[in-house]
UniProtKB/TrEMBL annotation:
<feature type="repeat" description="ANK">
    <location>
        <begin position="71"/>
        <end position="103"/>
    </location>
</feature>
<dbReference type="GO" id="GO:0005634">
    <property type="term" value="C:nucleus"/>
</dbReference>
<feature type="repeat" description="ANK">
    <location>
        <begin position="137"/>
        <end position="169"/>
    </location>
</feature>
<dbReference type="Pfam" id="PF12796">
    <property type="entry name" value="Ank_2"/>
</dbReference>
<dbReference type="InterPro" id="IPR036770">
    <property type="entry name" value="Ankyrin_rpt-contain_sf"/>
</dbReference>
<feature type="repeat" description="ANK">
    <location>
        <begin position="5"/>
        <end position="37"/>
    </location>
</feature>
<keyword id="KW-0677">Repeat</keyword>
<feature type="repeat" description="ANK">
    <location>
        <begin position="104"/>
        <end position="136"/>
    </location>
</feature>
<feature type="repeat" description="ANK">
    <location>
        <begin position="38"/>
        <end position="70"/>
    </location>
</feature>
<dbReference type="InterPro" id="IPR002110">
    <property type="entry name" value="Ankyrin_rpt"/>
</dbReference>
<protein>
    <recommendedName>
        <fullName>Ankyrin</fullName>
    </recommendedName>
</protein>
<dbReference type="GO" id="GO:0000976">
    <property type="term" value="F:transcription cis-regulatory region binding"/>
</dbReference>
<dbReference type="GO" id="GO:0045944">
    <property type="term" value="P:positive regulation of transcription by RNA polymerase II"/>
</dbReference>
<dbReference type="InterPro" id="IPR050663">
    <property type="entry name" value="Ankyrin-SOCS_Box"/>
</dbReference>
<keyword id="KW-0040">ANK repeat</keyword>
<dbReference type="Pfam" id="PF13606">
    <property type="entry name" value="Ank_3"/>
</dbReference>
Length: 191
């Protein structure tokens, strides 16, 4: 059974942290990979909403770690953009692709940096995420953090060796140029 958005009872249970219901549905052969109209699987819904126990259950039952939504976001990307550090760690530990790009060619690290999620950025970098991965505009995670005035993330990325001279593809500007243009004084001092 599906609702008007193509969501199944398993998708709703996964998004709503009803672990016992998820377990019951899975034990009764609910399809782990059924996608909503937005192409999100139950694992994507659980990851987006930060439901650690449900993520663990679905992954342990064989849910696809790399299933992509309409935005080409994997469960790891959803967890990173929503700042769910523990879920990010769970998915990485189970082998999720650190470099999976979404529809805007952004990796989970790029999404976390863009949104200023310090702990998730640290975790992804420590696990080996590529510091210089570029999105469709050619912006690196450092450039994304600088544009959005995320001082702590900028410092983390600099400390890990991010390229200070990386330029975007459109305006050919560095993180420093973008920080200056945006009036982000603290970030300018770091760069």
């Amino acid at each position: 059974a599906r609702d008007d958005n193509g969501r199944t009872p398993l998708s709703w249970a996964a998004a709503s942290v009803h672990e016992a219901v998820v377990n019951l549905l899975v034990d009764n052969h609910a399809d782990l990979e059924t996608k909503s109209n937005y192409s999100q699987t139950p694992l994507s819904w659980a990851a987006e909403n930060g439901h650690e126990a449900v993520v663990k259950l679905l992954v342990d039952k064989g849910a696809d770690l790399e299933a992509k939504s309409n935005y080409s976001r994997t469960p790891l990307s959803w967890a990173a953009v929503k700042n769910h550090e523990t879920v990010v760690k769970q998915l990485i530990d189970k082998g999720a692709d650190l470099e999976a790009k979404d529809a805007n060619s952004q990796t989970p690290l790029s999404r976390a940096a863009e949104n200023g999620h310090e702990a998730v950025v640290k975790l992804l970098v420590d696990k080996g995420a590529h510091l210089e991965a570029k999105n469709f505009n050619g912006r690196t995670p450092l450039l994304q953090a600088a544009v959005n005035n995320h001082e702590a993330v900028v410092k983390q990325l600099i400390d890990k060796g991010a390229d200070l001279e990386a330029k975007d593809n459109i305006y050919r500007q560095t993180p420093l140029s973008w920080a200056v243009a945006s009036g982000h004084e603290a970030v300018v001092k770091l760069l």
